[in-house]
Every structure is written in C-alpha cells, then in structure tokens.
Amino acid sequence: MENSTTLGTAKPRLAGLKVLVIDDSKTIRRTAETLLAKEGCEVFTAIDGFDALSKIADHQPDIVFVDIMMPRLDGYQTCSLIKHNKVFRSIPVIMLSSKDGLFDRARGRIVGSEHYLTKPFTRDELLSAIENHVSAAPSAA
Q1: C-beta of residue 78 within 8 angstroms of C-beta of residue 51
Q2: Residue 26 and residue 30: Cα distance in Å, rounded?
Q3: Does residue 7 form part of some domain?
C-alpha cells in the first residue's frame, strides 16, 4: 500500500519560503519566479540593487539571488550592503552570473555571498542552492 502523503497531498518542498530574485533581465526573473513558485516559494523580484534594498526591508526574504552585472548598483555592491546591515546580514545571498570565472567567484565570496550560480541555471541548481543555504524549512507561523 502506498503512503498517502506522497500522492499529491504533500505540501510543496519549499512552501512559504520567501525568495528575492534581483536581476535586470526580465527573462531570468520570470524563469526563477516560475520555478520557485511551483515549489511553493513566495517570490519577490527586483530589477536592480536599489530596487532590491526596499524589497528586502519590506519582505525580509529567507534567501536572495542577485545578478552580478546590473545597472546602478551591481550584485557585488548589493551583496555587500546586505551583509553590512546587522538586520539582514544573516540572509543567504547567492550570486548569479553568466561569467564562470575564478575571479568573479572569489569577489563574490569577499563581499559575503554564500554561493555562486552560473547562468543559465537549472531548476535543480536553484533548488539545491536554497536547500543548502536556508537553515530550516519555514515554520507554520
């Protein structure tokens, strides 16, 4: 006999998790939003670092994905601002980039990012980054 919780009645893996995706590419924002929403995440998007800062304050996400190359405030600067804020510094920041260079990865680490994903990323890479860097599943508050 099959376990009834595996027959579609189980909650999505990441139900209730708040995720912020910061990218100046509408395609990347939509792709990430679609993939994460299917897993039960509450997804917020921002077009650049300035846009993201107010959304972080408003929504207090559990994890942030940030593109490196953006106008106005790039991903390194955005990550650095998050990590230098005592209220938000514990939020995991995952860098997104189409560049897969050692220098970019190192610079991401220097400003405090927890992980680095190369675009285009897969659904599994996105979900794995969340599972590896969000300490606990969201509680039913």
Answers
A1: no
A2: 6
A3: no
Answer yes or no: is pLDDT of 19 > 90.
Answer: yes
Read off the pTM. Answer: 0.87
CA of residue 47 relative to chain centroid, distance: 14
CATH code assigned at 44: 3.40.50.2300
Q: Are 20 and 96 a contacting pair, CB within 8 Å? A: no
In a domain, 126, yes or no: no
pLDDT tens-digit readout, 53-108: 999 999 999 999 999 999 999 999 999 999 999 999 999 999 999 988 889 999 99
Task: Name which of 8, 123, 131, 116 is nearest 65 in CA terms.
Answer: 116
What does residue 103 show for φ and ψ, rounded to 5 degrees? -60, -45
